[in-house]
Write a structure and sequence with these properties.
Chain A: Part of the AP-3 complex, an adaptor-related complex which is not clathrin-associated. The complex is associated with the Golgi region as well as more peripheral structures. It facilitates the budding of vesicles from the Golgi membrane. The structure holds two protein chains of two kinds. Chain A has a domain of 224 residues: Leucine-rich Repeat Variant (Alpha Horseshoe). Helix content of chain A is 62%, strand content 0%. Chain A is elongated. Chain A contains 45 helices and no strands. By secondary structure, chain B is an alpha+beta fold. Chain B has one domain: Beta-Lactamase, CATH 3.30.450. Chain B contains nine helices and seven strands, in the order ββαβαββαααββαααα. In chain B, strand 4 and strand 5 form a beta hairpin. Chain B is globular and about 45 Å long. The chains are: A mainly alpha, B alpha+beta. Chains A and B meet through helix 1, helix 3, helix 5, helix 7 and helix 9 of A and strand 1, strand 2, helix 1, strand 3 and helix 2 of B.
């Protein structure tokens, strides 16, 4: 049978255009049999084909054993295929790897450098901590191999070993350091060591300070640019720990910046200076300023002069790092940065955008926002974005030739063209989010002119891109008051926030809201496609309701609210609409009632009829929240409608409409309250919710029920309500007795002599006789209709009003700040400001006062809830991230004693374990021999021969390994394996314990 | 460190995938297609840095417990790419790598391939699958760059291939006849090819690479 090579596979693939996947399935089937072949050539070829197809997503974990087989081939090229297979396809759960230990050991000792390199470059892909443990002793000597090619690869392999098995560094670090310190070392090896040290460096910089002199030497020597870059990066992490380094570094770095031709090195020098905090750490300020000026000048040059997008991008990247600590320095380069905002390259724009939001201030916010708005305006919204987003596309199938491509084209880098791409919606979102961030920063402290900002907000509504589905899902479930769920909500939130916080701007804000709510403005103010801006309606409808006094045309607003199209809005928005409708309606009614006439009445009735109609349609809304509100208001409106129709006189609006219902919606003004304020109110100490207030409650209830049963009677019921009692229950003759009783019960103030109180009352009556606000007490007989009289009648004439206790409400314990009391925290504008406005801050309590236990209590509760304390929460690992957490614990500082002690201890442990293993082995052999004797007695000796052969083979394998066997000793190989097992067990125990805790 | 090296063509067909951390095949594929979606949408005028694709950005919450300089972390933060004729070369790396230096690294990679294949084109890489891996193996081990010198890379690959040379040759010359044969012929015959690949990088301003090699 003729087997296909990889070449044939690819050619076959190219000739099976159209049904590639079928062809591949066929190939895979062939490979499955071929890879099981006894012929190593066939096996290796099949494996190579499988590796090729794995690149296209055809899983081959099933073949991992065959990978091992090919790895053990004697031919280098076949071996290479095997190792490639291991590197490409072994995953953390590949178990056969444990079987490869001996093979790897053997290959590491190979005389041929290419063969030896194979395990070195493959190990980083497959290493596990147990494998690292058993291979460490074999890899370590490679560090002093005669060939630099081997040494440089070994250094990196050791680094990857250390990532999974940090103890590696304890033995390897001194040797790695030796390589670095050796001035005669091959430059490639030195560079590799520097790379590794740079990788290790940021994790534990303090351990690498002793290397500084040598690194400095290398920096001065100016060898390989790649290495210099890494050294500079390393120094950037060291300088914060050792300020003296700064002084040494300034000169060589300045020198490099001025002389180097390599942009990468120039850039990294500047970057290193910024990251290492060298600007500010230089001793004399003049030098620091000079350096800063030099760096910024070079960065500016990278943007302006070179006109290369890559340089622009990285320069902005560097600016972004500088702006965190020196916003003023960056602001000086504002002109070029602003230009980058309009760069055709989206990545550059994004960086510039981030940068400007870092350096924004009252002075430059207007031009920045203006520029961004212009960008948004100038390009149409991409409506079909959802299709563009097809990121989870179908799996890649190997194809025949890609159409229209010439794979034989020589690889020449593309020439840059300059074309203007359309604005993608991602970028649009980012821009809008940044505008909102910049302007909303510190409670709008950057806004020079709120009228301008309101205009911007209204315009932003029109520029909103369609919502992305996930965002829409989020906003449905999210609490409405949390800003940042969707852009439309954020715009709406800021509009509302300004209306609430900035009282002076309320009329303007309300008019903006009105313009957004009007149906006639929909096409002009809302995005032409999608319903991404709809959430804004929820916020603006609240505004037009709450601040309806500022509406230009309440009538129009109401029309928009009860428009037919409104019923189709989302439930959340509808709820807000339903609350706003009565408020606006009452505003109209109030205006109408001023000059009440027949025509007004008709107009109101008609309007009312339409409102009722709208509410009726919503009273069967599938969303319960909407339905409930609609039904409640519907009833209210029906009452109004009844009142209107049953109105007798034409000259006055019904009381219900003019005063009763408006009372429902007016009251204290709403102020912004800090999110956590509620939590800070202390419950009064005496508040005891566990105890019942009246211990006799159940018996009282019992009593009342029996009384009811006994007395309930239609006639009595009728009589109780219809007949007026002939006499008050408290009779005149009882007065003398009852008054003091009442006084005693009600008053917490000192009980007064009844006579004194009687005198006082007489005085009071006298005083209030002519006061229209007091009801005269004299005309007892006539005033029976007043409710007060009824009360008085039932409680006794001389009910002591003064005796009603007035509890002194002491709130100073919690120190509630009066609303508006601290409402002017001098977020004050600069002289530039057109109009002085006050921005109300969130109302809150002084944090010191309640923090005495109360504040910390919920926090500790939360902490207890979230994660077991003590163990820091580790965020989820990124896909491609290596886990280096083990390295954080390992110190590399030369502590020879500890090291030696540690090694000694380990040796002792090993010796102990070897002894134990020997014992176990001896026992096992004894038992086996005993079994053998029994079996030979029975004529079966299969087991015994196996044991014998096994024993013979071991020393042989060892000589092959080139280690030479000390026959008397236990084979070291076996101890290694056993030890490893034991270690593994230990580790798994530890892990289990960790998992438990 | 470098987290992954990817090479794919203009229609997203992978030519080389190398992940320096273990990742299951399906995730590899979706990452590949996400990056392809991002990179193929970029105009030639754009800079050579990509934003992180959704798969990589979703977990990239800054690690609050990381002690020392927060500028670094183990999570990949930058994607650098270069487009040569029909192929995209992608490097995914953490912030310990210099973005501009990575661009140079790709250039060295391509130059090494060009040296080994003579006027390298996509077809060479398809058929020279193993050599492609070998070249990368000489340059990057376990995500750390071990060699940037062109000569030494080429030397290392040649040493490891030994007798392979003839075999690879036969693959190319033996003939992919048919419509694309001319394409190879063109590649071979053009003297400018090597110059093209070796062309100094535009951004580096001529001799900008300076002391690199």
């Amino acid at each position: 049978m003729f087997e296909k090579s990889l070449y044939d596979l690819i050619r076959g693939l190219r000739s099976h255009k159209g049904n590639e996947s079928e062809y591949i399935q066929g190939i895979l089937k062939e490979c499955r049999t071929e890879v099981r072949s006894q012929d190593m050539d066939v096996k290796a070829t099949a494996l190579l084909k499988l590796i090729y197809l794995e690149m296209f997503g055809h899983e081959m974990s099933w073949a991992s054993f065959h990978v091992l087989e090919v790895m053990s081939s004697n031919k280098h090229l076949q071996k290479r295929v095997g190792y490639l297979g291991a590197a490409q396809t072994f995953r953390s759960d590949t178990e056969v790897l444990m079987l490869a230990t001996n093979l790897l050991k053997k290959d590491l000792l190979s005389a041929s450098i290419p063969t030896m390199s194979l395990p070195l470059i493959t190990l980083p892909h497959v290493i596990t901590s147990s494998l690292a443990l058993s291979l460490l002793t074999d890899i370590l000597p490679r560090l002093s191999h005669s060939q630099p090619v081997v040494r440089k690869k070994t250094v990196v392999t050791l680094y990857r070993l250390a990532l999974v098995y940090p103890e590696t560094l304890r033995v390897a670090w001194p040797k790695i350091k030796e390589r670095l310190m050796d001035a005669d070392e091959n430059s490639s090896v030195t560079a590799a060591v520097v790379n590794v040290v740079c990788e290790l460096g940021w994790r534990r910089p303090q351990d690498f300070l002793p290397l500084a002199p040598r690194l400095f030497e290398l920096l001065i020597e100016e060898g390989n640019n790649w290495m210099l870059i890494k050294i500079i990066k390393l120094f950037a992490t060291l300088t914060p720990l050792e300020p003296r380094l700064v002084k040494k570094l300034v000169r060589p770095l300045t020198n490099l910046i001025q002389t180097t031709e390599a942009m990468s090195l120039l850039y990294e020098c500047i970057n290193g200076i910024v990251q290492g905090g060298i600007f500010s750490a230089t001793e004399n300020a003049g030098e620091g300023d000079e350096l800063a000026a030099l760096c910024l000048g070079k960065l500016r040059g990278m943007i302006v002069v070179e006109n290369d997008p890559n340089l622009k991008y990285v320069a902005l990247l560097a600016f972004n790092k500088i702006v965190v600590s020196y916003p003023a320095l960056v602001s000086a380069q504002q002109d070029v940065i602003m230009k980058c905002l309009d760069d055709p390259d989206i990545s550059i724009r994004m960086q510039a955008l981030e940068l400007v939001s870092g350096m924004v201030s009252t002075d430059n916010i207007a031009p920045i926002v203006k520029r961004l708005m212009k960008q948004l305006r100038s390009s149409p919204i991409n409506a079909n974005e959802l299709e563009d987003d097809g990121l989870d596309s179908t799996p890649i199938e190997p194809m025949a030739d890609s159409d229209g491509e010439n794979p034989a084209e020589i690889l020449i880098e593309d020439q840059r063209t300059s074309e203007m791409p359309p604005i993608p919606n991602d970028y649009r979102r980012e821009v809008i989010a940044r505008i909102l961030d910049m302007c909303g920063q510190d409670k709008y402290s950057n806004i020079p002119d709120f009228e301008w900002y309101l205009e911007i907000l209204v315009e932003l509504v029109r520029l909103l891109p369609p919502q992305i589905p996930s965002e829409a899902d989020l906003s449905n479930s999210a609490v409405e008051s949390v800003p940042g769920t969707s852009l439309a909500e954020r715009v709406g939130f800021q509009l509302r926030d300004i209306a609430v916080r900035v009282k002076d701007l309320r009329p303007e804000a309300c008019r903006a809201a009105e313009s957004l709510i009007l149906i006639s403005n929909r096409s002009a103010l809302y995005p032409p496609v999608g319903s991404g801006a709809d959430p804004v309606l929820g916020f603006v409808s609240w505004m037009v309701g709450e601040y309806s006094e500022y509406l230009v045309s309440p009538q129009e607003t109401l029309n928009a609210l009860i428009h037919d199209s409104s019923a189709a809005l989302s439930p959340q928005i509808l709820c807000s609409y339903l609350q706003a409708i009565p408020k606006v309606f009452l505003r109209i009614a109030a205006k109408a009632s001023d000059g009440w006439s027949l025509s007004e009445r008709t107009a109101i009735s008609l309007l009312l009829a339409r409102v009722i109609e709208f509410e009726e349609t919503l009273s069967t809304h599938p969303n319960l929240d909407v339905q409930e509100r609609a039904v409640e208001y519907l009833e209210l409106f029906r009452l109004v409608s009844e009142a209107l129709s049953s109105l007798q006189s034409e000259d006055r609006a019904p009381l219900l409409l003019t005063s009763v219902i408006p009372e429902l919606f007016t009251g204290l003004e709403l102020n912004p309250v800090a999110a956590g304020a509620q939590k800070k109110i202390l419950p009064p100490e005496e508040l005891d919710l566990a105890n019942s207030i009246n211990p006799r409650l159940s018996s009282l209830l019992q009593l009342s029920r029996t009384e009811e049963d006994a007395e309930f009677d239609d006639e009595a019921f009728q009589a109780f309500y219809s007949e007026r009692e002939a006499a008050p229950p408290v009779k005149a003759q009882n007065l003398k007795v009852s008054v003091p009783q009442v006084a005693e019960q009600l008053s917490y103030q000192a009980a007064e002599d009844p006579e004194i109180s009687a005198r006082r009352k007489a005085e009071k009556r006298e005083r209030n006789r002519d006061d229209p606000f007091y009801i005269a007490q004299g005309n007892d007989e006539s005033g029976r209709s007043s409710p007060i009289d009824i009360l008085r009648g039932s409680n006794g004439k001389d009910l002591d009003l003064d005796a009603i206790p007035i509890v002194d409400l002491r709130l100073d314990e919690t120190d509630i700040r009066a609303p508006g009391g601290q409402a002017a925290p001098s977020k004050q504008k600069r002289p530039k400001v057109k109009r002085r406005v006050e921005i109300a801050a969130d109302e809150n309590f002084d944090s010191e006062i309640p923090s005495s236990g109360n504040d910390s209590a919920p926090r500790s509760y939360e902490a207890g809830n979230a994660f077991p304390s003590g163990k820091p929460h580790r965020p989820r690992k990124n896909l491609l991230q290596v886990d280096s957490s083990g390295l954080h614990q390992l110190s590399l500082i030369d502590d020879a004693n500890a090291d030696r002690f540690d090694l000694q201890r380990r040796e002792e442990e090993e010796a102990e374990m070897a002894a134990a293993l020997k014992e176990v082995e001896r026992m096992r052999l004894e038992m086996q021999r005993a079994a053998e004797r029994v079996e030979t007695a029975e004529g079966v000796d299969a087991e015994g021969t196996v044991v014998k052969r096994k024993k013979k083979r071991k020393p042989k394998g060892q000589t092959e390994d080139g280690q030479g066997g000390a026959a008397a000793e236990q084979p070291p190989e076996e101890t290694a394996v056993a030890k490893k097992r034991k270690k593994k067990k230990k580790r798994s125990e530890v892990e289990a314990m960790r998992a438990d805790s | 460190m470098i987290n992954a090296v990817l090479v794919f063509n203009n229609s997203g067909q992978p030519r080389l995938t190398k992940f320096y951390t273990q990742l299951d095949t399906t995730t590899q594929q979706s990452l590949l297609s996400q990056i392809f979606t991002l990179v193929s949408a970029r105009p030639a005028s754009a800079c050579n840095f990509l934003p992180l694709p959704p798969l990589l950005s979703q977990h990239s919450t800054p690690n609050p417990s990381s002690s020392s300089s927060s500028d670094y972390s183990d999570a990949p933060t930058q994607i650098t790419y270069r487009h040569y004729a029909t192929l995209y070369f992608i490097l995914i790396s953490t912030s310990t790598e210099s973005p501009l230096a990575l661009l140079d690294l790709v250039q060295v990679f391509v130059e090494a391939l060009d040296r080994l294949f003579e006027n390298v084109c996509e077809l060479d890489l398809i058929f020279g699958f193993e050599t492609l891996h070998a070249v990368l193996g000489e340059m990057v081990v376990g995500g750390v760059v071990v060699e940037t010198g062109l000569e030494r890379i080429v030397e290392g690959v040649r040493a490891s291939e030994g007798g392979m040379k003839g075999k690879r040759r036969s693959v190319n010359e033996g003939g992919y006849g048919g419509p694309n044969g001319s394409g190879i012929g063109m590649g071979r015959s053009m003297g400018t090819g090597a110059g093209g690949a070796m062309r100094a990088l535009g951004w580096a301003g001529g001799g900008g690479l300076g002391g690199w090699r």
